Amino acid sequence: MKDTPINYEVVQRHIQESKIRNIGKATIREIKRLINGIERETGEKFIRMEMGVPGLDPPQIGIQAEINALNSGVACVYPEIEGTPILKKEAARFVKLFLGIDVNEAHCVPTVGSMQGSFAAFLTLSRVHKEKDTTLFIDPGFPVHRQQHIVLGLKYESFDVYNYRGDKLKEKLESYLKKGNIHSILYSNPNNPSWVCLTDHELRIIGELANKHNVVILEDLAYFAMDFRKNYSRPGVPPHQPTVANYTNNYILLISSSKAFSYAGQRIGIMIVSDTVFDTKSPDLLRYFTTDLLGRALIYGTVYALSAGTSHSAQYALAAMLKAVNDGTYNFVDVVREYGEKAKVMKKLFTDNGFKIVYDKDENDPIADGFYFTVSYDGFTGEELIEELFYYGISAIALTITGSERKEGIRACVSLVRRPQFPALEYRLKKFYEQHPK
After folding, report:
1. Which of 35, 160, 245, 266 is 20 to 30 A removed from 184 (C-alpha atoms)?
2. Alpha-carbon distances, residue 336 vs 123, 189, 287, 322 (angstroms)
3. What is the pTM assigned to this prediction?
4. What digits encode the pLDDT tens for the residues 140-164?
5. Which tens digits make up the pLDDT trace of 221-272?
């Protein structure tokens, strides 16, 4: 099939020259680099859905606070490893107002994005108890969390949550936890890539099993309050963003500035460590750290060794944004609601042209419209579909690299697709549909 929106020969040549054996298994950054080259040669812009990056302008509140901090001279001063007091204060307020839980300011630790938070947590938690050496991923999930384990030489196990919603989740989790080797469970909520949102019932199951088996829950809240089916935007007013912290004290929450505040470039996030986890003592920690206290090992052992703190000026930016949100003068959810509105339109364009939504339900409810959605097309695996869509100027990633068992699916991110591109997306999908009849 050579009559494609993007020159067939050019796409084919770039794929061959990339030396990537299977485009569908390529990393997100490899796909990005490949498409950049095709765009430069053809002059045609792709519908870019491979990168989960913000597509909105960052708040001036944060930018101005960071400028003020730099003008005050913080660039020449090392930040405290545990974080600046103002950020720790506003982080604790934020958790109270938007999650409804009380946390100790001292246990709110800035990190170089949530990715450093997860890296530090994985490394430290794997060394708390000798017999617990494995992380359990509730998949699908962010591919780089797997890469972090590979880099660190750590063990992990995983399962796709889609077939284990509701009460089925308990038995599935128990099948892993009863072995006694799991130190922590990681999931994102809302989920990257499926946009599944775990219910309170499911979070209760996870929390109660964490208590029973003494494992730490790593809750990735990169897409905080972005389940737009409910209004989580009012400080101190229910409903709150659902969290496992309502059902267990064995938790570390990873809160990112990248999506909720469109502040991805400054690499600033917050790791919220519960009192119970922070105050955990274990002599096994002394194999690697100078302390047997988990919280001190995490901050002054791991985070210190990784980066000696988090960008000083960016901490002031995040503190200012959190304060505005906490005070009710800035509604970040209203701003990012644009992602859900775009997703609704884009999903219809896909389904009108023969595609199917892969992860389509939260227990019995239709999935929300948000930052991501997943699609498939009869006759293609997800990996095959990724490569075929290149010729139509559409990019995404295959679900197989996220731990998903849905081999037919791909993940589409809406953030970088502009509304003026919708007609081009519709034309290209129609062309695909015409050339791949069912």
Report:
1. 266
2. 32, 16, 45, 15
3. 0.95
4. 999 999 999 999 999 999 999 999 9
5. 999 999 999 999 999 999 999 999 999 999 999 999 999 999 999 999 999 9
Question: Tokens 């072995």 identify what position?
Answer: 179
Q: Are 389 and 396 in contact (CB under 8 A)?
A: yes
CB distance 254 to 218 below 8 Å = yes
| Dist CA 133 CA 137 (whole Å) | 13
**Contact between 389 and 395 (Cβ < 8 Å):** yes
Residues of the chain above pLDDT 90, percent: 95
Helix (H) or strand (E) holding 11: helix 8-18
| Domains along the sequence of the chain with CATH | 8-56+332-435 (3.90.1150.100), 60-327 (3.40.640.10)
Q: What is the pLDDT of residues 333-368, one digit of tens each?
A: 999 999 999 999 999 999 999 999 999 999 889 999
Q: Which of 48, 14, 188 is nearest to 118 (CA)?
A: 188
CA 4 to chain centre: 33
Residue whose entry in the numeric block shows the structure tokens 């913080």 = 74
The answer to whether the beta carbons of residues 270 and 108 sit under 8 Å apart is yes
